[in-house]
Amino acid sequence: MSSSIIPALLFFSIIITSLADESPIGADYRYSNCSQTFQCGNIANIGYPFWGQNRPEYCGHPKFLLNCSGQTPEINILSQQFRVMGINNMTYTLNLTRSDYWGTYCPNDYENTTMDYDFFNYTQNTQNIFLYYDCQPVYISPPITSQSIEFICDNTTNGNSITGYYVTRNLTSVLNLSAICATNVIVPVYQGNAQYLESNLSTSNLLGAIDGGFGLKWNASNSECENCVWSGGQCGFNKSTNGFICFCENGAHPSTCHPLITARVKTFDDDRLSASSCYLFFILARMNSGSGWAEPNKRMPSQVESNLGLMGLNPARPRGLGSGYRTFSIILIAIAINK
Ligand SMILES: *[C@@H]1O[C@H](CO)[C@@H](O)[C@H](O)[C@H]1NC(C)=O
Ligand SMILES: *[C@@H]1O[C@H](CO)[C@@H](O)[C@H](O)[C@H]1NC(C)=O
Ligand SMILES: *[C@@H]1O[C@H](CO)[C@@H](O)[C@H](O)[C@H]1NC(C)=O
Ligand SMILES: *[C@@H]1O[C@H](CO)[C@@H](O)[C@H](O)[C@H]1NC(C)=O
Ligand SMILES: *[C@@H]1O[C@H](CO)[C@@H](O)[C@H](O)[C@H]1NC(C)=O
Ligand SMILES: *[C@@H]1O[C@H](CO)[C@@H](O)[C@H](O)[C@H]1NC(C)=O
Ligand SMILES: *[C@@H]1O[C@H](CO)[C@@H](O)[C@H](O)[C@H]1NC(C)=O
Ligand SMILES: *[C@@H]1O[C@H](CO)[C@@H](O)[C@H](O)[C@H]1NC(C)=O
Ligand SMILES: *[C@@H]1O[C@H](CO)[C@@H](O)[C@H](O)[C@H]1NC(C)=O
Ligand SMILES: *[C@@H]1O[C@H](CO)[C@@H](O)[C@H](O)[C@H]1NC(C)=O
Ligand SMILES: *[C@@H]1O[C@H](CO)[C@@H](O)[C@H](O)[C@H]1NC(C)=O
Ligand SMILES: *[C@@H]1O[C@H](CO)[C@@H](O)[C@H](O)[C@H]1NC(C)=O
């Protein structure tokens, strides 16, 4: 490597660093808007794939609109309303319960829980309980007694009461409740709550199990979003392609803010240095071939001066990829000095 290349490398490393630390002023408005998480009811810091309130639709997945008008967020899945009591964006799981069963085992209409398996599935620790309505009172022999699994629903419209039975597992082979009840409804609950109910059959524990919710795992282009975020982007959705989109400071991209980052994510586990190395080879290759800069750096010339000027005034460098780019800069400088 000739000595004349050293100032060039230093120059480029400064540019890369300053680009990485660039202020969000002038960043794509969708990138800026989608960087904001939102508060919905009593849950704060909600991000992709959810949207609603002041978080625009393109920042989330169409199926993940949250209704924030109440104290607890609500989500609509296959025309059924669910109260969202917890969102875990590390495990992609929701803790939710059916809105029509909130605080009651006597809903106005008898509807089974339906699930959109294209985007959701129950977690391993979720199981069904079975609620039977409009039953003829019967004698059920111990250890399970008719009394222990019985509940009463009052119909406020006509003033009548109906008898119901609940079971935590399918007892049809020993006790065919379908034969004595007009209808039944399947409600998912956490396994632990179902077991507790089983160990102590009571309507208050039944209510506790239902209100305790159940676990639901979501899939809204999860891995695509991970790659996008890793590359410094914000996840979103393009309604016209009906597909994932990655909003970057310099605009929208189909998957990540830089194609090479995808290569890294597929090849390595979680090592920023590797990506930095990718950039190293990428830039050296570009320099050797004498061609121009790749897309992300197209706007560079107009910004070089102001960024260089800002460098000294901007020591904080708060954002994610900055350190990765700085590592790269250090590698570049180290190579330049070594040669
Ligand atoms: C994920 O959850 C954490 C903790 O609630 C929150 O700080 C963060 O903003 C969330 N991120 C996204 C992208 O939703
Ligand atoms: C998105 O960002 C633009 C520009 O910052 C702003 O004018 C607009 O109100 C934002 N949209 C939403 C829905 O927050
Ligand atoms: C939002 O939730 C409220 C109750 O919290 C409900 O009255 C309203 O109908 C819901 N809106 C939609 C669009 O589902
Ligand atoms: C309550 O009674 C009304 C009027 O008879 C009936 O239409 C409705 O289906 C009943 N509700 C339930 C939950 O059984
Ligand atoms: C709920 O599903 C069960 C099992 O598939 C079925 O037997 C029952 O009739 C369904 N109940 C309603 C109200 O549709
Ligand atoms: C949902 O998860 C269960 C395991 O919890 C699995 O057996 C089932 O195949 C999954 N269903 C879909 C549609 O992914
Ligand atoms: C319960 O078991 C019976 C057979 O014992 C079966 O016919 C029925 O479909 C099962 N019901 C549910 C909801 O799994
Ligand atoms: C339970 O009762 C229903 C209604 O009488 C009947 O259709 C069904 O075959 C019975 N199931 C079993 C397992 O006996
Ligand atoms: C069973 O549950 C009821 C209501 O939750 C409670 O009052 C009672 O002490 C429990 N009994 C046992 C043996 O745990
Ligand atoms: C689910 O939410 C309910 C109600 O807030 C809470 O009591 C329960 O501990 C939560 N369960 C899990 C597994 O997060
Ligand atoms: C998630 O959904 C995508 C399609 O949108 C599918 O290709 C992928 O296999 C799904 N992943 C899981 C774990 O279900
Ligand atoms: C969404 O997809 C359409 C069709 O491919 C494309 O024209 C449009 O530019 C995309 N939107 C964004 C924000 O990239």
Structure characterization notes:
- The protein is α+β, with helices and mostly antiparallel strands and 339 residues long.
- The chain has a domain at 5-27 and 259-338.
- Helix content is 31%, strand content 24%.
- The protein has nine helices and 15 strands.
- The protein has helices at residues 5-20, 29-35, 191-199, 203-211, 222-230, 259-267, 272-289, 300-311, 322-338; strands at residues 38-40, 43-46, 66-67, 74-77, 80-88, 93-98, 120-122, 126-135, 150-154, 161-167, 181-190, 214-218, 234-238, 243-248, 251-253.
- The strands form four sheets. A six-stranded antiparallel sheet has the order 3-4-5-6-12-7, with no helix packed on it. A four-stranded antiparallel sheet has the order 9-10-8-11.
- A hairpin with a 2-residue loop joins strand 4 (74-77) and strand 5.
- Helix 3 packs antiparallel against helix 4 (203-211) and helix 6 (259-267) packs across helix 7.
- The model is unreliable at 9-23 and 261-339 (pLDDT under 50).
- The structure holds 2-acetamido-2-deoxy-beta-D-glucopyranose (12 copies).
- One 2-acetamido-2-deoxy-beta-D-glucopyranose binds next to loops.
- Residues 156-250 form the Wall-associated receptor kinase C-terminal domain.
- Keywords: Glycoprotein, Kinase, Receptor, Signal, Transferase.
- It is an enzyme of class 2 (transferase).
- Residues 1-20 form the signal peptide.
